[in-house]
Design goal:
Blueprint: E1 3-6, E2 12-15, H1 18-23, E3 35-36, E4 40-43, E5 54-58, H2 70-91, E6 96-99, E7 109-114, H3 125-139, H4 143-160, H5 163-167
Bound molecules: zinc ion (ZN).
């Protein structure tokens, strides 16, 4: 069902699929695109202001892991590997939680959520994920943290820039 969204420039448009609108460039993510290829689009949703959090989305409109083409499968794992090593090398992120569900209202996308010290108050593993994201959304959207998050986006973008050339 179509959704009404407001663009950064104030215009309001109706889109069929929010993910397609984002990966096609109709909607610009805050902080900018981290990386994109013909198959994938990497960005951060700053509604959850956690430095180094990354969302890796497919550009094609599909939902399930077994729908990845051979080419996409190869690029997918290489890209995750690249993002993960840049998170470690440039942002000092030691552990990451990965989350992906096929019954999403967005299409195929992987959340890569860095694990920080403050998150341990919400426990471990999958049950901690929602409280962590909600805590970030509700309590960490101050200017200082948002600047740090935007800087994280820029640092990752610089790190991943050479991905395609080094992997092809
Ligand atoms: Zn779509």
């Amino acid at each position: 069902m179509p959704r009404q969204i407001t663009l950064a420039d104030g215009r309001s448009v109706e889109v069929e699929c929010l993910s397609c609108a984002l990966t096609s460039g109709l909607i610009a993510p805050t902080g900018g695109v981290i990386y994109e290829s013909s198959n994938f689009h990497v960005h951060q949703d700053v509604a959850y202001p956690i430095r180094g959090l990354v969302i890796l989305a497919s550009k094609r409109h599909f939902y399930c892991m077994d729908e990845l083409t051979d080419e996409e499968q190869f690029e997918y794992i290489s890209l995750i590997h690249k993002i993960r090593s840049e998170q470690r090398n440039r942002l000092g992120i030691e552990k990451v939680y990965y989350f992906y569900n096929e019954d999403t209202t967005h299409h195929f996308h992987l959340w890569m959520v860095p694990r920080y010290e403050w998150m341990y108050q919400f426990g471990n593993s999958v049950e901690s994920l929602r409280p962590v994201l909600l805590h970030a959304r509700n309590n960490m959207n101050d200017e200082e943290n948002m600047e740090s998050v935007i800087e994280g986006i820029r640092i990752l973008r610089e790190g991943i820039r050479d991905f395609e050339s080094s992997s092809r």
